[in-house]
Structures are given as structure tokens and as C-alpha cells.
Amino acid sequence: LVDSVHNALGCLASAPEPFGEGGVYLQFCLKHSALVQVQVFDLKGKTLWTSGKERLAVGNRQWFFEGWVHGVQLPVGEYLFQVRADYGHGQIESRQGRMTRGRTPRR
Prior knowledge:
Layout: E1 9-20, E2 23-30, E3 34-41, E4 47-50, E5 54-56, E6 59-65, E7 68-69, E8 72-73, E9 77-88, E10 91-101
Antiparallel strand pairs: 1-2, 2-6, 3-4, 3-5, 3-9, 7-8, 9-10
């Protein structure tokens, strides 16, 4: 049983920033193992994508988001992502970060 999970989830970042056609890694760190789920939202708070849940161990972690929603690539702009960590026994923590979908360079 985890006594306290306050601030056990941190180090949020996205890379590359801004991201393009190749997608983006949503990065975070865990101080306790947890069942983790990641979500992507528009700036109005509409859920655009939700990952499956996965049990992750302590350490620096990342989740890959392709940048596509229902077969359509996200348009250029800013987005929010949320990492939710369920440590069990009703102890849940979540953090939000920002990421930017940039323009794809012309070749």
C-alpha cells in the first residue's frame, strides 16, 4: 500500500516540440508504479484521444501519440495532454501538459 502519492507523478514534457507528421512522445516520471492512462484534448477540453491503460513501473516513462484522431491528422495548433496514474486503493493523481502540432516543412 502506498502511504502517500502526492506529487508522485511529474516531469511532464512532449518531444519533439512542436511535433509534426511523425507524432510526439508524451513524457512523464513516476515515483510509484501505477496503472497509467494518457489523454489528448483540444484547448476547449474536448477529448480527442484516449490511450489504453497500462501498468508502469517507477521511472522516466513515455507514451507515443501518432497525432491522428479517427483517421485524421490533428491540425496545426496547441493541445493539452493529461497523464492519469492510478496507484490503487483509491489513490489517483493526474497532471496536464501542453503540446504544439507544428507545420510540416515543405520539401
